[in-house]
Write a structure and sequence with these properties.
alpha+beta; 2 domains; globular; 11 helices; single chain
């Protein structure tokens, strides 16, 4: 429940920091208007004096520059206030998973651990690191959308959203440090930072969001070897996950009016044989890279073009929910891959079935 308390603090802080009005005013900030009037009166007095001394002289007042608006604490306060309810939902969801799946609240002392990255002697083969990075990215990406929709000045929305997501996931990692099962890992913190930075780049570079998605595919039992079917937690286990980068044809102007707009180029990664159930069954340690083609379901369902679809429902709440789901989740059986198992370690003295 510490995450809920943290989110509540953010909501209170956003109320304190929220500016009274929009940070961007087309006619210029109101606090400069008295100074402008004073300067105008001063200019009139000078003009009168000059006219008395030299009647042929003409006044040439310089335009008053409008100070530029930068990302600031005021932006942060405005953005936090704009997503206060979304933060409450995220906090409640993480607290639920933390208590149910991550052993929060067991009263253990704070501990740290060196987990490594993607090597064969790590606990999850790097899947946990990608999971941390992906979770931070998704939280930041969703908050970016909500800040842009609700803030009085959405400038810098990707920065605020990524800072918030990194802070939330950092708090999650700190709470993990008080569980004897997980412990605090600096590798996880770095992975969180990578996910936050990816969200900033994807939402700041023009056209990148239309071209590139990062997704998770939760593989059904038919994808896996016999025996790997148990699911006791809220989140899918690592042995049932695959992470995919999708380059979308619909994001390129030259392909928008061709059938290639429905296709995506995929690259992916997964690791198998690292989990306890897999070890018990004697499955080998494997890490695999994938390359293949996928079907852009959002383009099929909501894209513009001569093909009848659900484009008219694109901006409804159900349409938004479906589009966001397909932005972060790869539906099984909608893609084909070539697999390269770049590292396979067979367990000695055991047998397994393919």
């Amino acid at each position: 429940m510490r995450v809920v308390a943290f989110v509540a603090c953010l909501a209170v802080l956003s109320t304190v920091l929220r500016p009274e009005a929009s940070l961007a005013q087309p006619s210029g900030p109101s606090q400069y208007r008295p100074a402008l009037r004073a300067k105008g009166q001063h200019a009139e007095m000078q003009a009168a004096a000059v006219a008395t001394a030299a009647p042929t002289a003409t006044a040439n007042p310089e335009p008053i520059p409008i100070p530029p608006t930068f990302y600031s604490v005021s932006h942060l306060g405005d953005h936090l206030h704009a997503v206060r309810w979304e933060l409450a939902v995220v906090g409640a969801a993480i607290a639920t998973v933390g208590i149910k799946d991550w052993d929060w609240g067991n009263g253990s002392g704070f501990q740290t651990i060196e987990e490594g990255w993607f090597s064969k002697n790590t606990r999850h083969g790097g899947m946990d690191k990608i999971g941390h990075s992906f979770s931070t990215y998704v939280i930041a990406d969703l908050l970016t959308d909500r800040i842009r929709a609700n803030a009085s000045d959405p400038a810098g929305a990707p920065i605020t959203a990524s800072l918030i997501a990194f802070g939330i996931m950092g708090l999650v990692e700190t709470l993990d440090g008080f569980t004897g099962r997980h412990r605090f890992s600096r590798e996880d913190i770095i992975a969180n930072g990578a996910g936050a930075l990816f969200s900033v780049f994807r939402n700041s570079i023009p056209g990148l969001r239309e071209k590139l998605d990062w997704r998770i595919m939760y593989t059904p039992a038919s994808f896996e070897r016999p025996g790997i079917t148990g699911e006791n937690g809220i989140l899918p286990p690592y042995e049932r996950q695959r992470y995919i980068m999708a380059l979308k044809g619909s994001g390129f102007e030259t392909l928008k009016n061709t059938p290639l707009r429905y296709l995506e180029l995929h690259t992916g990664f997964d690791a198998r044989g690292f989990e306890e159930k897999e070890r018990e069954l004697g499955y080998p340690i494997e890490r695999s890279l994938y390359i293949g083609l996928g079907l852009n379901l959002n383009e099929v369902l909501f894209g513009s073009g001569p093909t009848p679809n659900l484009a008219r429902y694109k901006d409804t709440l159900p349409g938004w929910a479906v589009r966001k789901t397909f932005e972060y989740v790869q539906v099984p059986y909608t893609s084909v891959y070539y697999e390269n198992r770049f590292s396979t370690v067979r367990r000695m003295g055991t047998t397994f079935r393919d």
